[in-house]
Write a structure and sequence with these properties.
The protein has 261 residues and is mainly beta. Helix content is 8%, strand content 38%.
Length: 261
Amino acid sequence: MRKKLAIIVVLVVITLMVVTPAAAIKNGREDGNEHPFVGLMVAQDANGTPLWRCSGALISQNVFLTAGHCTEAPAAHVEIWFDSDVQVNPNYPYTGDVGGTPYTHPSFDPGAFYLYDLGVVVLDSPVSKPMYGALPQLGILDELATKRGQQKTTIKAVGYGLQKSSPVGVEAYKIRLQADLRLIDVNGTAGIPAGTSVMLSNNANTGGTCFGDSGGPLFLDGTNVIVAVTSFGLNGNCAGTGGGYRVDTADDLAWLANYGF
């Protein structure tokens, strides 16, 4: 059964190694204006009722990239904020800087969301930023893992939401954070097929991903190239490793071509 984090963060107890949609930045540092094209989105139903929040990134003036389980039905509309700190915004969670219509990868299956966990929001009006996220070349993660070695490839995670999760409680702020992660595996894990996911380091020293927001960009460190979007976790306390859904695959790049890429 899928578990989503709604506007009010609820801690869900999850059995170890159960794959669950999740993920924001924990134990990270404030991003400030380093990634002004990364935003916090709230999905709304057809009546304008907030459903859940996620992160994502503009890849053009008109297209916002996120996770498929962030855009799936019953989401009918999305509002997005680009402030580095959305906590005190009086319009949250109803009216963002821009709105848009969500679209989900056509092969997305809620029962196995991690297989095609990609979505976009087509904006109602263009958003001008000094830079945007860039799509990767086909198979770049496999190439880098072979050339450098997996754990020498670093990934920068950026997103909003939950900073800490434990049996005692959670810390959740709507602040854009970043963390530097190591690439652990590009070959799938926990029953997830090779070529669909990346596993990333997740610890208190260097940071990681946690329950709160999904869909945040995972950049090749030092670039604005989005190689994956934050997708799932394997542990109810956000320990061990975190998972991202790869964007550098043929079917994903072909689908995104429908939106001008």
